Amino acid sequence: MKFNRRQTLAGLTALLGTAAMPRLSFAQDAGVLRIGALNPITGAGAPYGSGMQKMILQAAKLVNDAGGAGGRTLEVFAEDTQTQPQAAVLAAKKLIEVNKVNAILGTWSSGISLAVMPLTNEAGIPLFNTSGAPALSVAPANEKHLGYRFQATNDRFGRAFAKIAEKEGFKRPATMAFNNASGIGNTEGFRKAWEANGGEVVASVVYEPSQPSYRAELQKVLDAKPDVIIMGSYLADTTVILREWYQTGEENKWIIPAWAANPKLAEALGPDVVEGIIAVDSISNEGSPAFAAYDAAYQEALGQPGLSNVYAAMTWDMVIVLALAMEAAGPGADIAAITAKLHEVAGPDGTKVSTFAEGKEALKSGPINYEGASSVLDFDEFGDVTPDFSASVFTGGEAKRNYIVKI
Amino acid sequence: MTGFAELLFSGLMSGLIIGLAGLAVTLVFGIARFSNAATGDTMTLGAYGALVGSAFTGSVILGSLIGLAAGALASVVSYLLVFRPLQGRSPISSLLASIGLAFFIRAIIGLVFGHDQNVFQLDIVRPIKFAGIRIQPNDLKFAAVAISTLAVVFIILHLTPIGRRMRAVADNPLLAKVSGISPRPVMLALWSIAGAVSAIAGIILGMKTVVSPESGWEMLLPAFAAAVLGGIGHPIGAIVGGLLIGVAQELATPFVGFTYKIAVSFIVLLLVLLIRPKGLFGRSEGVR
């Protein structure tokens, strides 16, 4: 029997394939906990995604260098969501089925977190996200209480918007929302808080993405003569809307989430158009020792200040909180037992700690309270946190922080 | 009433962009006989070409001409490397290849230019008021460019020898061949025209909105809809189809709201196809 080159190659490949298979499916060694870093490396979240991923890797390295958590080290598998739900679902499937991860960390944008959560629920593993949609708090999305949110909910953003609008003395607000859970969550959160205070919203519009023009949408809002327009939007649509608004010559003010009203917006439109826009952001736990540790790691990995990426501070905290929960749950604990410890290690009671090493040490003598880099990180019953917010005003093309709002 | 007129105008502007993209789709379909899913990404490529061109030359007009050339060139190259080898196979092969090509172009653009949005630095100007209607001077310029593009395409198709040959091939490829029309120059002309038209659509879209690697791809569905609505393979039909879709979307908004305006354009498409399955201008295709 003779083999030609092609048959030999085919045979060898098949052999290699079968040899690799058991490794893929059964290589679940006891000393490692696998986590998936599922971040928006490309697409609309790209300005934040790489930093988010690098901070997961960096924090995991820190945990491993400190001798691991609960007798185990962390192994990170990184995937790109492309900031698209379809791609994110495929990547999550791969992480769960092929890499057998025990937790997925760092999904950005609500559409993606909402799409991935059924998969993580099905697999019985937690999903740590940085998205705002109110729907992520409750059933059906969070029926198993496996979703943990490190970002403020859009509802909380809306409350912050209402506080700021009140402080600035606006009387006739209108809203414009990108048609998704996050955009509408922002403006509806605002409406609820504003109307609870006896105010009235004079007009509201929900618009579709990727339109060649938003003039009709804008016109409807402007016809109500608002003194401020509250946005639930993203960068690209905000760019088009503000350009068209400026061209109408109207002079109302704007309150816009900072993920849309960022330096890129000023760069695209020029200082005159963005002058006076109020950009609202949830802020990291600046000034805390945990933030200082994160900031140093971010500077080293990306050469930029940690302040430039609030989401990276969140992913940093995700790894540390997970590792602390592993440590608290003890060696050999399964992911359900680890998840059950999350509230405990982050919650308001216990010794305050700011790093993993500190927490690991303090856990020997009693309960701990990890005060994170992104917020003080006290999860409520829905797994949500309440950070503070900043209001920045654009002057001369640059956003300068004016004041901080607590809700 | 002025509100209505402004909606109409804004619908016409959106419609012109959709129509130009639809024209590129329909030209390729009429002659090469498949739906080119890379049309959207050729638009994006043209817009990026124009961005780079404007940065180099300092002039948006010169830059746009460079973008136009980039679109035409990319289109011809994709014909030579991808679609010519697939000629004679089922149109499905070419369609699938064009989807692959679309991903390829988008990925390259993402790699080279990143995924952040880019904008054309155009002067922001106040609108002129005409009978109470606010009109953007830039929109008038875009409309002029779009209409002259259409004029040039129709002049090429109807008044030049190569255009006559293109129409002959579109009409009956076999008969054209036996009449001694060589397919190669026809195909090269077709692909460069389709590429240039896509690029112009992409550049205008980019100037009105923002340029990102996904911007053209997101226009593909409306472009296909315009081509189908007008009767696929029919150039005037694509333009009329695009305008109809744009105007229907905008004019419906006072009644159905902004969230459902896209659905309205597809309802129009459905209705037209129910009454005239071959599209507005299409001829019914008999057995070949």
Automatic annotation (TrEMBL), chain A:
An individual GO BP term: amino acid transport
Keywords recorded for this protein, A-Z: Amino-acid transport, Signal, Transport
Q: Where is the Leucine-binding protein domain positioned along the sequence?
A: 33-346
The record's listing under SUPFAM superfamilies reads: Periplasmic binding protein-like I
One short Pfam name that applies is: Peripla_BP_6
* CDD domains in the cross-refs: PBP1_ABC_ligand_binding-like (cd06346)
The signal peptide here is: 1-27
Q: InterPro entries, from UniProt?
A: BCAA_transport, Leu-bd, Peripla_BP_I
Q: Which family does it belong to?
A: Belongs to the leucine-binding protein family.
Q: What is this protein called?
A: Amino acid/amide ABC transporter substrate-binding protein, HAAT family
Organism this protein belongs to:
Roseibium suaedae
Automatic annotation (TrEMBL), chain B:
Where is the protein found, in the record's own terms?
Cell membrane
Cell membrane as UniProt keyword: yes
| A Pfam family annotated for this UniProt entry | BPD_transp_2
| Example of a GO biological process term | L-isoleucine import across plasma membrane
Q: Which GO terms describe its cellular component?
A: plasma membrane
Q: What is its main location?
A: membrane
Give yes or no: UniProt keyword Secreted.
no
Membrane topology per the record?
Multi-pass membrane protein
Q: What molecular function terms (GO) are annotated for this protein? A: L-isoleucine transmembrane transporter activity; L-leucine transmembrane transporter activity; L-phenylalanine transmembrane transporter activity; L-valine transmembrane transporter activity
Which family is this protein grouped under? Belongs to the binding-protein-dependent transport system permease family. LivHM subfamily.
List the protein's name.
Branched-chain amino acid transport system permease protein
Q: What is the lineage of its organism?
A: Bacteria, Pseudomonadati, Pseudomonadota, Alphaproteobacteria, Hyphomicrobiales
